[in-house]
Amino acid sequence: MKKLFYICITLATVLFSCSKDDDNTPQAEEDATVEICDPDGYEKGHAYVDLGLTTKQKWATANVGAANATDNGSYFKWGGVNAITSIDDEAAEVKLESTEDSLTMTLAAENDAATVNMGGKWRMPTMTDMQKLTQQCYLKWTNNYHGTGAKGLVVYKAKDSNDRGKASLPNGPDKPKGTYTLADKHIFIPAAGCYFNEKIFSESTYFANCALYSSTFSVSRDCAWVMWYFEEKNENTKFRGIVPVGTNMQAACVRGVLD
């Protein structure tokens, strides 16, 4: 069935308003010379890392369609399995399946961009998977991932229980108990932006913008859920969290997970 999705960012998002330094010049990471952690394994040629989540999911080390961890990869319309070449590409015929939760539904396998493009047991993360990732890991923003110049979010396997859910983002560092370098287990989510109101929603307006689609559809809100982190330059506003969004977000990247 075809669905019309409406924008509905709610209090499920954590909203911050705070001051920031005007200097956004990329700085070299202090651990840029260390060897990046090895993946824990491969599924159909795609690397994954075990971040120690209680749900046992393993996360892919790169976005769907990406050549490496710092590559943005492909952009998809929600429920679409073909990378878009233009925002005018036809929307997918979306099929949804029931879940144990009457308030949500999930994409059918044929509409799951990770399942179709990565093969094997890969699938898109659910809203719950994304919540566990952000609640049980330590998140750190970088302007220069491993000296590549790539901006984005480094998601570390937490070394200390007190670090779970902490996020050191550009305008409000939350210092961890443990010491983290890129040699530690982590994934990198590049600031790939997303298509929003027919424009690429990225660094022209925002310092930080990471967006990944989930496979979860909110029945009550009539829209899909997204993991979204962004910082607005002009209004000094920051959103971070798992949010329900609709047609205003027209395309975003996808990351695969394994059970």
Q: Over the alpha carbons, how many angstroms does the gyration radius reach?
A: 17 Å
Helix content: under 10%
Biggest beta sheet attributes: 6 strands, antiparallel
Strand fraction: 25-35%
Element pattern in H and E: EEEEEEHHEEEEEEEEEEE
Q: Within the largest sheet, what's the order of strands?
A: 1-15-14-13-6-5
Secondary structure: number of strands: 17
* Helix count from the secondary structure assignment: 2
Q: Helices and strands: which structural class? A: mainly beta
- Unreliably modeled segments: 1-30
Mean pLDDT: 81
Span of the ends, CA to CA: 27 Å
Describe the structure.
The protein is mainly β. It is 6% helix and 34% strand. The protein contains two helices and 17 strands. It has helices at 113-118, 127-136, and strands at 14-17, 41-43, 46-50, 58-63, 96-98, 104-107, 137-142, 152-157, 167-168, 186-190, 194-196, 199-201, 206-218, 223-232, 237-245, 249-251, 255-258. The protein has a six-stranded antiparallel beta sheet with strand order 1-15-14-13-6-5, with helices on one face. A four-stranded antiparallel beta sheet has the order 2-3-4-17. A four-stranded mixed beta sheet has the order 9-7-8-10. It is globular.
